[in-house]
Design brief:
This protein is of the alpha+beta class. About 35% of the residues lie in helices and about 20% in strands. The longest helix has 26 residues.
């Protein structure tokens, strides 16, 4: 016998004596014996009720939960890096929590209006965005004195643990073994979609989904007031977490009810009770769910569902949904979201198909069949093939992004992975569970450790909030200002007095004194975030303006009586009017009557449900578990196999020795060396931004085509302004010219404003260079640089002072030129492949000559082309010397060069050409029958006619 743990418990017996009970735990927490010492009657605890002891011992047997705690330490280690991520919505939600904390300190526990957002103009954020996450952060900040950063991380840790334990509990309800349930719980904790979440309310809602199904399962299978109450509670909490995920969860729960209710033939009464509990939970969340729907006509919510946010732009292909998450830190700052189920998770879920095979009816598990059915439906909804369905069902477009279904899909996949472990023979389940868990962790290292620098947020203020809004262009802490009232255009500028108050850390006075007559006097009576009052004396009836955006719910009272109100067109400021004399004016936000109706209805449900249950509760207690001879029945389990114990030890060592972090650290990419990038250009601009390298899909192109150029940038410091990128194409056969022939400009390189760039990451900036159809063929320099400010001031290169940098190769715009009978080599470095000359040249007319050249190998010098025109007597008539950037020519590419000639007198002429270095005049020699010579004569004559 291998003894893992030994615990001694003391119980109070019916006779008042103390009995010691020794519990010996074996493999998987199985209870081996319960032997007593001394006199004992049926096990009692707390005056004769043994149920607590029984449940405690039952919980102690669930060692799978302990292994989940061990397995999640890798995720927590990544989370506990100092600061918050710069990318995504992490800081946005931190500042939302800051606004909630500010309202709590002012005594407003459930705010509808966020008065300090949008620069202080106010914003109806908490009408449309669920409050549970900022509530949780505010509660931890108030209750334990934590900073916002600490409170957010603790909330996320609790949510992650709760979600994994929820999947574990659901798997156990589905009669999966502890090993299979543990694997499912860790698979949910390391879900790729969840690990890269910075939408923390959505993350919180996803972790509640398994508990929703536990509630549904318990209400359907067991019934009872407590189970239905739990289901209603989870339903309400889900609705208060994230409304889009909540509606997805409700649909998921309804499908589960439908399947079990039909397939398992449950009592119709219990089905009705379960649906009633769900409806009750939705009603308990009505103070948020209701206004978030009925207030849509009052705001610009269409901004968040049109343009780049339209559904059609956010489908995922099947390969994208099944791609493997990155397992290395590539330091790519603007890396696109990898919205995937995870190839490793999908493959691990495949063996669970055995539970739904029709020819294995003995192994069919209804829950596994439901999981595969729902999983396939969710995959379909995320692919472009489902677009007609999104257009037919308007409720689907309310979800905004089809890939949001990855949240429920992650839970389904995790449970199917648990079923895969369950297909194995019992002796090998635990080794397989630990091995699978390590694969799940290692497969998501790129999400656990993102590698960049983070933003500390220990002592954030409202001034920081306003600065963040302005710098990141997030009005009201939303992407497009979609919650501005419908009548507001743009972003109203705040009054000077209010700005100064925020800078001093004071409560702003929202009365615009500039709207009052010069003779008016004002005495402030009260200043609160949502309730302010003044004593105002005016000589005549006067309209007054308040520093809040007009929105249904605001009230103005003069001497206790409602006053007329109106909204300023376009700006949206709230106005009212007071008569002549001295009056007491109050501005406050009591909200709309429909909101209060939802509040009272939900409050009635929150209080009425448990009261009604207590009054109607039956006083009978469930029967106690059978005891044999005053002792718990003995259950002997086989000795644990050494393979399971060894796998457990290796798993514990891997986590304890930080194996995931060590493996990730080995794969870290150097900061200035992006994978697959040409690093021959590394230039700093004003010691603030570095051009790390580039990628180009080709160096030769025909007129009218496009070429893809990718630049990689890295900020050297935190930037306080937005820098823009230009890419210019300049003729290379005119080295001292700066006139561009084509260009590409990016206001935000990489679609990320440089103010948001992280100095510990590099950023990819894709340019598409469109070559004009009528562009002159030849070589073109690709010049890259930065500029900023309203005047477009160009940034200077740190070393040298130039306002840009040329890429080390020129772009060749092709032209078809007839080939020569045999190519001519100049010094083994440059080769003449073809030439094109005009026929029928008239005296007094200019003409041009085209030559096709090729660099035979990379050159380190720039040569000058000379072309001499000689007459029949061998005398030099004219010449062209053209300096060329031959060191920038791509080896092997044909480079067309044009040579223009002025009008010539009638006669016959020959052309001699060659290359030399300036100023040494060292020529590239040409081999011929008479030996090597510095030039070569074209084998044709030019005939100039009179």
């Amino acid at each position: 016998m291998i003894r893992i743990g030994l615990t001694r418990l003391a119980f109070v017996t019916g006779g008042g004596e103390v009995a010691g009970v020794t519990l010996e735990f074996l493999r998987c927490g199985s209870l081996k014996t319960a032997r007593t010492q001394g006199k004992i009657e049926p096990l009692m605890m707390f005056r004769g009720d043994h149920r607590i002891a029984y449940r405690a011992m039952k919980t102690l047997r669930e060692l799978g939960m302990l292994w989940i705690l061990v397995g999640l330490t890798a995720w927590w280690e990544g989370l506990n890096q100092p600061g918050l991520p710069r990318e995504g919505d992490a800081l946005l939600h931190a500042y939302r929590a800051l606004e909630m904390i500010r309202m709590w300190r002012a005594g407003v526990l459930y705010p509808r209006w966020a008065p300090d957002l949008a620069g202080g103009t106010g914003y109806p954020l908490f009408l449309f965005h669920a409050p549970l996450f900022p509530w949780s952060v505010a509660a931890l900040s108030f209750g334990f004195g934590l900073s916002i950063e600490q409170a957010m991380k603790l909330t996320l840790m609790i949510a992650t643990l709760a979600g994994s334990l929820g999947v574990y509990g659901l798997a156990r309800r589905w009669r999966l073994s502890p090993a299979a349930a543990m694997t499912a719980g860790l698979a949910f904790g390391y879900m790729p979609f969840q690990l890269q979440q910075t939408n923390y309310p959505q993350y919180l809602a996803i972790t509640l989904l398994p508990w929703l199904l536990i509630g549904v399962d318990g209400a359907l299978r067991g019934g009872g007031f407590a189970r239905r109450g739990f289901l209603a509670l989870i339903t309400a909490l889900l609705g208060l977490s994230h409304h889009l995920t909540a509606w997805m969860g409700y649909l998921l729960a309804f499908s589960y009810i439908l399947l079990l209710g039909i397939a398992a033939d449950f009592d119709p009464k219990r089905l009705r009770q379960t649906l009633t509990a769900l409806a009750l939970g939705v009603g308990m969340a009505l103070p948020y769910l209701g206004p978030s729907i009925i207030e849509i006509p009052w705001v610009h919510l269409e901004r968040a569902r049109t343009g780049v946010y339209e559904v059609v732009h956010h489908f995922r292909s099947l390969p994208q949904l099944l791609q493997l998450p990155p397992i290395r830190d590539d330091r790519w700052g603007n890396h696109p979201l990898i919205l995937t189920i995870g190839l490793h998770q999908a493959l691990l879920a495949l063996p669970s198909l055995v539970y739904g095979l029709p020819w294995r009816r003995r192994t069919i598990r209804l829950e596994a069949v439901w999981g595969w059915m729902i999983g396939l439906i969710l995959i379909f909804l995320m692919t472009p093939a489902s677009y007609p369905l999104w257009t037919i069902l308007p409720g689907l477009s309310y979800l905004q992004f089809p890939w949001r279904w990855l949240g429920p899909m992650g839970m389904i996949t995790a449970l199917l992975i648990g079923f895969s472990i369950e297909t194995l023979n019992p002796p090998i389940r635990w080794p397989a569970a630990f091995t699978t868990s390590l694969l799940l962790i290692l497969g998501t290292l790129g999400f656990i450790y993102d590698g960049g620098s983070r933003v500390p947020l220990a002592r954030a203020t409202l001034a920081d909030l306003h600065r963040y809004e302005r710098e990141q262009q997030y009005p009201g802490l939303t992407a497009t200002g979609e919650l501005f009232p419908r009548w507001v255009e743009g972003w109203p500028e705040l009054f000077t007095d209010m700005l100064r108050a925020y800078e001093r850390g004071e409560e702003p006075d929202r009365l615009d004194r500039t709207s009052l007559p010069v003779e008016a006097t004002v005495r402030t009576l009260r200043l609160g975030p949502l309730d302010q009052s003044w004593e105002i004396n005016v000589p005549y009836r006067t309209p007054i303006r308040f520093g809040v955006l007009g929105y249904p719910g605001w009230m103005v009272a003069v001497d206790g009586q409602p006053a007329p109100m109106w909204v300023e067109a376009r700006a949206g400021w709230l106005w009212s009017e007071i008569p002549a004399g001295t009056h007491r004016v109050r501005l406050w936000f009591p909200g709309r009557w429909i909101w209060r109706f939802f509040d009272h209805l939900a409050l009635g449900l929150w209080l009425g449900w448990p009261i009604w249950g207590i009054l109607r509760r039956r006083r009978t207690r469930p029967a106690a578990p059978a005891l044999s001879g005053g002792k718990m029945s003995e259950h002997r389990s086989p000795a644990p196999p050494w393979g399971a114990l060894g796998a457990a030890l290796l798993f514990l060592l891997a986590i304890g020795l930080r194996l995931p972090y060590r493996l990730w650290a080995i794969t870290r990419v150097p900061l200035d060396r992006p994978s697959g990038v040409d690093l021959s250009v590394q230039v700093d601009f004003e010691n603030r931004i570095r051009l790390v390298g580039y990628q180009i899909d080709r160096w030769a192109i025909s007129p009218g085509e496009t070429v893809q150029l990718t630049l990689w940038w890295r900020p050297l410091v935190d930037l306080d302004e937005d820098a823009h990128v230009y890419v210019h194409g300049i003729p290379a056969d005119q080295p001292f010219s700066s006139a561009q022939s084509f260009q590409s400009d990016h206001v935000h390189p990489g679609d990320v404003p440089t103010r948001r760039w992280d100095p510990e990451k590099h950023y990819r900036d894709d340019h598409v260079l469109q070559i004009p159809p009528d562009l002159q063929p030849g070589p073109y320099r690709i010049r890259v640089g930065l500029y900023s400010g309203p005047a477009g001031q160009r940034w200077r290169v740190t070393n040298g002072g130039a306002d840009g940098v040329d890429l080390p190769r020129v772009l060749i715009v092709r032209r078809a030129i007839p080939g020569l009978p045999s190519a001519v080599s100049f010094g083994g470095r440059l080769q003449l492949d073809g030439a094109e000359w005009p026929t029928g040249i008239r005296a007094g007319e200019p003409f041009e000559l085209w030559l096709s050249w090729r660099a035979l190998r990379p050159l380190d010098r720039n040569y000058t082309l000379f072309v001499h025109l000689v007459d029949e007597g061998g005398r030099l008539v004219a010449q062209q010397d053209r300096f060329q950037l031959t060191a920038m020519w791509p080896p092997g590419e044909c480079v067309p060069l044009r040579v223009e000639w002025p009008p010539l007198p009638p006669g016959r002429y020959r052309l001699r050409l060659g290359w030399y270095l300036w100023p040494s005049m060292e020529h590239l020699l040409v081999s011929g029958p008479s030996g090597e010579s510095p030039g070569w004569e074209l084998p044709f004559e030019l005939q100039v006619h009179p």
